[in-house]
Amino acid sequence: MRAPVDAHEVTGDEAGVGRLAGTVARLRDEIEEARATADGRALVELAKGVLVERLRCGPAQAAEQLALLAERANITQLQLAVEIVNEVSGDELTAPPLPDGRPDATAAVRLRTAESGALHADDTQSAAQSLFAHALAPLGASAVAIWLAGADASLTLAGHAGFTPGEASRWRYVPPGVPTPARRALMGREAVWIADLHDSGLPSIGADLPGRVTVPAGTGGRITGVLEICWPSALPPQPLSVHKQVEALAELCAATLDSTATAGLADHGAAAPSELVDLADGLLDPALVLGPELSPDGTIADFRVHHVNGRFVDLAGRPRAAVAGKTLLEAYPLAASEGGLFDKVEHVHATGEAFRTEHMDLAALIDEVSLPVTAGVSITRHGVLVLVVWRVQDETARLANLLQHAQRLGRVGGFEEDQHTGAIVWNSQLHALFGREPSADPVPLGQIAAHAHPDDVPALNGFVQTVLHDHRSASAAFRLQRPDGVTRHVRVIAEPVLDSHGALLAVRGAYQDVSAQHWTEVALSATQDQLAITAQEAAEHNKLTLQLQQVIMPPTHPTLDAFGLRVAVRYRPAAQEELVGGDWYDAVVLPSKQILVSVGDITGHGIKGATGMVVLRNALRGLAATGAGPAQLLTWLNLVAHHLADTIFATAICGLYDPNTRVLRWARAGHLPPVLIRDGRGDLLPFLQGMMLGAMSEASYAEGEIVLERGDTLLLYTDGLVERRDAPLDDCLNRLCETVREPRADLDDLLDHLLAQSEADTDDDTCVVGVQLP
């Protein structure tokens, strides 16, 4: 019999277990402290490297300089190292400032220490612990999980911190298709912030931690995993700085995930590129092996065709060599359409989620003509490569489908009658045309006269005689009277099928509903009559407009010579009569002995444009008699256009020349500036402030002055002289200044030359006024 256990012995055993537990806890703390020290030491060494490069010194001098700078700044060498790294990194891994605006040095040290620990971690588990301890726990987070994305879009828990071992074990693997927050970030390829996990209805690790954010992590356009951070309570909206920190921390996970993914592929015997090529060559359908092409910023620019298999058939019939080696968008530019092949390949490459469909619209571009094809498509990711397999729809089925649509769109119904058995085949369009149920018996060709309008029966009898008895193809048009009382205009076409002895075997043909065509022809006939009347009225209207304009604005105006100033005018109406009517000019000696010169352009054409031009031109003449300056005249003219006329909008230039002082004062209302020709050089006058006439009830106008010298010429013109549809306005004005540099015999010769050399193509009126001081 076993002796009873002594109480002192039990106490001694318990004390031994306690001492062992204490030792384990102490060793764990020492390991964590050593890891943190190592992370900090890596940052200090990095800062020393920066100083070596910046100061052009050795490692020992860099260490001394770092210690000296830290002592002078009264901070630790680790804090100084973080500041140096932040200054040269230019990345987004920075801490938000304190409430008073000062940098948060402590937070910056934590973030950089977390970065160092993650980058130098031996595995993803160590990286997760470093991120949690240094960066996430200070943000209030309770746990973190780093998920590795599989080639099939599954998720494997590669690293974690803050979860119990049992919870981590239960969530070791998430199969494809399970709707978790991490999967949502993987499929959407963007961060997912969840205020309360319970309200979202999504299952995930740590269900008792409601606050949640999941961020995809990857490089080169391929997502290798997802960073998931959990908070102990509902998560309020976070500032932009926190969003950027979380995204930057997710990028830190990409390096360890990439190495884990590579190791995992090796462990599971995933296909190497050569094996993927062998797989593609073993397929009975056309297949492409694509690899990503990265732009300088690391994003996907295109996919290179690394291999095409032996069964490959190009959508446009090109040989394999015409596709192999090209990028996807080079070979198939139309694949770039939204939701097209390129988007699907990019999504599969990024997420690993396979894509398959029985019907997808593909297209090839041949001589700038799109060749559409419908095909079944399968896209899968294998490591960093993507396998695309397609199967073009069977040609017979494709043509039959095309014919069915053509018959439906053309309102055509086909038929065939066997003369020996009496069997009649109608398609569905023909039953609908006759207004009969699909189950109803077809109408034999010989009996169609019974379903026609009585007036059309003789013609149909002749049609039937030609086909059934004379054995010749024929056609006829008739009015079909359906059982529902509807009458349709129909054309029937039929041809006999004969044996080698000329005996009738069958009759094939089609009925076409031409009701729309019939009524369209009736409507067109009536419309043509109406158009003829309208065209005649329009011609008379345009002729009247042109006559009115020529009375008021003749193409040429006698040269005005007054007080030593010469004024010449050229006017060219629009080439099309219906566009005539917008431009106007004036040159007159006022009672004050000043000379008024003006140019304007009315919006609109025809009678409205011509009458509006008359209103403004006459109004300006009357207002000028008051002796007011150009700016005041345009202010008053704007009131006339806005209030006293029928919605007139116009641009204008008004100038007053004083012969005593040789000063020309001018103002503009949205018009192109005049050109001054002096000493063989043409220059634009300034763009004075001034809104177009009629746009607003109250408008003010700036006024400019220029003293004319002997030999000066000033040009006022409308936009019909210079504007081109294919050139910026500044270029058009610069060309005008170049044209006027050519010396001309006199003012009239200059204006004729400008009209002849004009390259304007707006089909607008053109008006040019030349003011010259000989």
Automatic annotation (TrEMBL):
GO terms for molecular function: phosphatase activity; RNA binding. Keywords: Hydrolase. Residues 474-526 form the PAC domain. InterPro entries: ANTAR, Bact_Sigma-Reg, PAS, PAS-assoc_C, PAS-like_dom_sf, PAS_fold_3, PPM-type-like_dom_sf, PPM-type_phosphatase-like_dom. It comes from the Bacteria. Residues 24-85 form the ANTAR domain. Pfam families: ANTAR, PAS_3, SpoIIE. CDD domains: PAS. SUPFAM superfamilies: GAF domain-like, PP2C-like, PYP-like sensor domain (PAS domain). This is Serine phosphatase RsbU, regulator of sigma subunit. It comes from Lentzea jiangxiensis.
